[in-house]
Amino acid sequence: MRVPFIAGNWKMNLTHLEAMDFLVDLESRFENKNGCEIAVCPPFTSIRSVKTLLDEKKIEASLGAQNMFYEQSGAYTGEISPLMLKALGVEYVILGHSERRQYFYETNGLVNQKIKSSIANGIKPILCIGETLDIRERGEAEDFVLGQLKECLDGIDQDAAALLTIAYEPIWAIGTGKTATVQDANGMCSRIRGKLSKLYKDKTAEEIRIQYGGSVKPSNISELMHASDIDGALVGGASLKVDDFLDIINY
Predict the structure, then answer these.
(1) What CA–CA distance (Å, rounded) separates 185 from 180?
(2) What gap in Å lies between CA 189 and CA 146, rounded to an integer?
(3) What does R_g of the chain's alpha carbons equal in angstroms?
(4) Could you read off the pLDDT of 197-220 as tens digits, one per residue?
(5) Has residue 54 got a pLDDT over 80?
(6) Regarding beta strands 209-212 and 232-235, do their DSSP bridges make them parallel or antiparallel, or are they unpaired?
(7) Could you report the per-residue pLDDT of 92-145, keeping only the tens digit for each?
(8) Shortest CA distance to 244 belongs to which of 226, 220, 225?
(9) Among candidates 207, 214, 200, which has minimal Cα distance to 231?
(10) How far, in Å, are 16, 98, 228 from residue 213 at the CA level?
(11) For residues 134 and 72, what is the distance between their CA atoms, to the nearest angstrom?
């Protein structure tokens, strides 16, 4: 049985003081009726403050980061290493998000290096994959997404793969208000699981959680979460609103 996993990606939002206010408000009304695993992924500047409040408050949630570099240290101005994140209690890291690929030109090869580094340093990766609207309209979405998956997991062995979460995020649905139909989203997640079963043992493929991301909100979360191969959500804008985030957790 795969435990549902809801992760909030705050992106470049909330100062550390705003993050603290958010968590205080969240704690005052916190419920987790479905027994989901929950993670919040704040900007780097808020990670320490968020960790302190997660430890103090009655919120059972993991701490995630939105990115990291693959080296442990060195002359990489502006980058954050896995050792730095681990020292702050980070358990998850989002890697390969479409915004990293689009704005910062991250390739599958770079994402692959980051995945290997995160696992080697004890941080569980959330690997993001997804297609553009143009690719979908050309009928190439499946080949593209499964190709991303294969390249990003090159050289990742069976034991390491068991630590993965996959987030399927069709790029055309991120922040646009558009959401893939449940049939389309679950169909792609099912094909992702099928590809994982070819790369690894069937048991590993069945255990890896696959999230859906892309304009997830309270009005569509229940239908998404009742699909056979969707095990959670990577939530963007709705994770910045306490009421919406709680409604998503308690779908």
Answers:
(1) 6
(2) 10
(3) 17
(4) 999 999 999 999 999 999 899 999
(5) yes
(6) parallel
(7) 999 999 999 999 999 999 999 999 999 999 999 999 999 998 999 899 999 999
(8) 220
(9) 207
(10) 25, 11, 16
(11) 37
Measured distance CA(242)–CA(25) in Å, rounded = 7
Instruction: Quote the CA–CA distance of 82 and 173 in Å, as a whole number.
Output: 30
Could you tell me if 61 and 93 are in contact, meaning their C-beta atoms sit under 8 angstroms apart? no
Tell me how far apart the alpha carbons of residues 11 and 22 are, in angstroms, rounded to a whole number: 15
Please report the pLDDT score of residue 174 as a whole number.
81
Q: Under a CB-based contact definition with an 8 Å cutoff, are residues 18 and 244 in contact?
A: no
31 CB-near residues (< 8 Å, 6+ apart)? 246, 249, 250
- Centre a 10 Å sphere on the Cβ of residue 248 and count the other Cβ atoms it contains: 26
**Candidate list 37, 99, 106, 169, residue with the active-site label:** 169
| Cα–Cα distance, 82 to 67 (Å, whole number) | 9
CA atoms within 13 A on the CB side of 158: 8
Given the residues 97, 99, 106, 131, the one annotated as active site: 97
How far apart CA 193 and CA 45 sit, in angstroms, is 35
Task: Judge: domain 5-249, CATH 3.20.20.70.
Answer: yes
- Quick one: angle between helices 242-249 and 218-225, nearest 10? 20
169 is catalytic: yes
Residue 153 near residue 163 (C-beta atoms within 8 A): no
Q: Which of 129, 96, 91 is nearest to 110 (CA)?
A: 96
